[in-house]
Structure to design on (207 residues):
């Protein structure tokens, strides 16, 4: 931290921030940047992407400064915004193949092969548990698309339903499965597991 406990009174700093004091904003930035940087880096493994996330986080703090309650834990509030920004990044990755490949590549370079193998096993276990919670028809549609690689048209013909119905089942299935994965909270592996899921979604939906 760049400030000491003797000179840093957070409640006072936040009250000044609420009044639009840019020096107070800079104090908060300097006080939390290093810790938040390491927190986000644990998830995304990319210094450049980490800084982009932090830029969004602190911009958000400045934009909502008048709604921050000085009597509550600012640190907890800040980390909540930070975590939300990380998962917002995940949504961006879901439609940006180049960014997804960049994050996945940097992650695989930063961990040992044995750890990757364990992570993939964990991913499959969590995914199968999530699939088992789907309704019977939705589970059948998902397994035909994912495990047998069939197109929406092929699944529609096999089950005697419309292609749009198949697509609707897949969209709702992925929403439910994503919610199951997000239960794993602040574990850095959770972000990577969701990233794997996002990569798989993009493959499944191109049919």
């Amino acid at each position: 931290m760049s400030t000491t406990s003797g000179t840093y009174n957070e409640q006072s700093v936040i009250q000044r921030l609420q009044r639009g004091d840019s020096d107070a904003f800079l104090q908060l930035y300097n006080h939390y940047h290093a810790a938040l940087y390491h927190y986000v880096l644990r998830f995304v493994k990319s210094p450049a992407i980490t800084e982009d996330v932090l830029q969004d986080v602190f911009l958000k703090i400045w934009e909502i400064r008048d709604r921050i309650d000085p009597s509550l834990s600012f640190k907890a509030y800040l980390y909540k915004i930070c975590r939300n920004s990380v998962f917002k990044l995940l949504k961006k990755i879901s439609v940006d193949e180049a960014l997804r490949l960049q994050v996945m590549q940097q992650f695989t370079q930063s961990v040992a092969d044995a750890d990757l193998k364990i992570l993939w096993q964990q991913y499959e276990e969590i995914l199968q548990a999530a699939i088992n919670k789907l309704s019977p028809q939705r589970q059948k549609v998902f397994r035909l698309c994912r495990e047998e690689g069939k197109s929406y048209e092929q699944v529609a013909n096999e089950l005697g339903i419309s292609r749009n119905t198949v697509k609707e089942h897949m969209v709702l299935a992925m929403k439910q499965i994503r919610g199951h994965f997000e239960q794993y909270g602040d574990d850095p592996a959770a972000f990577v597991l969701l990233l794997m899921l996002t990569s798989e979604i993009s493959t499944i939906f191109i049919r």
User: Anything to note?
Assistant: The domain at 112-205 is CATH 1.10.10.10 (Arc Repressor Mutant, subunit A). The chain is about 80% helix and 0% strand. The chain has two domains: 10-94, 112-205.
